[in-house]
Amino acid sequence: MKLTLRYFGMIAEATGRTEEVLNVSDQITLYDLKDQQIKKYKIQDPEAVQLAINQDLNLKSELKEGDEVAFLPPFAGG
User: Fold this and answer.
1) In whole angstroms, what is the distance from residue 19 CA to residue 47 CA?
2) Which of 10, 36, 41, 71 gets the highest tally of CB atoms within 10 A of its CB?
3) Which residue ranges traverse the bilayer (predicted)?
4) Residue 75 main-chain phi, psi, to 5 deg
């Protein structure tokens, strides 16, 4: 399946890009995808990386063809 990955903040700096399109296995989970990209780009502090699917932080949905997965840096609250 084809997914669009978007990278923001320190993650975009680490990857050297803000977006890429990947063809992945239909059985890949969101967390497998996260681990794959963290290893690929040697992203520091992987626990701080948050994910969103189609601009939704509720990660209960499974990945499907055409989804956009955002890799987000830590948020600061206030």
Assistant:
1) 21
2) 71
3) none
4) -100, 145
The CA distance from 78 to 72, in Å, is 18
CB 63 within 8 A of CB 30: yes
Low-confidence ranges of the chain (pLDDT < 70): 76-78
**Residue 22 Cα to chain centre, angstroms:** 11
- Residues near 37 by beta carbon (within 8 Å), at least 6 away in sequence: 5, 15, 43, 71
Would you state the structure tokens that stand for residue 1, as one six-digit string? 């399946």
| Percent of the chain surpassing pLDDT 90 | 81
Expressed in angstroms, the distance from the first to the final Cα of the chain is: 39
Give Dmax (Cα) for the chain: 39
Structure tokens at 20: 């890429």
